[in-house]
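for the recovery benchmark. tokens below, seq after
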């Protein structure tokens, strides 16, 4: 099943790349209007988060360990004394704390904070800008995150296949 998580991580990276490419080209701006950047950024962010989770699940499954975690920090806490079986988790935990791109990726909240809308709205209108809405990374920031995550996953896989 580990190949399943590997292929899912690859798929999520590919989808993130497609969303960023569409954003870079301007996508179908007639259809998306002012929402193009938000839609593509959030779609790419979500796919990158999924790719990271699939990579964590792949690392755990390689060692026949249970669990589906959102972060390496959460995985290490959940594994207890079995954590030494997956040394890559320690590296990922450090990166989650010290690498800005990974910290921003994992900590991105898609839902806004509980705050009133900036203007009264009827139920049939879209809130394009809301008070408390999370800020979105730029296209170059997301492209860098994609490449960094892809390189990290590739290095971990290469190391695993050396054994």
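predicted aa per position
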């Amino acid at each position: 099943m580990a190949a399943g998580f590997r292929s899912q991580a690859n798929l999520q990276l590919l989808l993130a790349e497609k969303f960023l490419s569409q954003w870079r080209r301007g996508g179908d701006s007639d259809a998306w209007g002012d929402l193009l950047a938000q839609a593509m950024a959030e779609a790419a962010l979500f796919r990158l988060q999924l790719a990271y989770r699939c990579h964590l699940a792949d690392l755990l499954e390689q060692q026949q360990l249970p669990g589906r975690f959102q972060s390496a920090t959460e995985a290490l806490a959940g594994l207890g004394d079995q954590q030494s079986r997956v040394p890559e988790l320690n590296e990922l935990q450090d990166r989650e704390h010290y690498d800005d791109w990974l910290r921003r990726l994992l900590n991105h909240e898609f839902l806004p904070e509980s705050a009133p809308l900036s203007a009264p709205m009827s139920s049939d209108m879209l809130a394009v800008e809301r008070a408390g809405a999370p800020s979105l990374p730029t296209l170059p920031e997301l492209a860098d995150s994609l490449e960094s995550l892809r390189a990290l996953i590739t290095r971990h896989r290469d190391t695993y296949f050396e054994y």
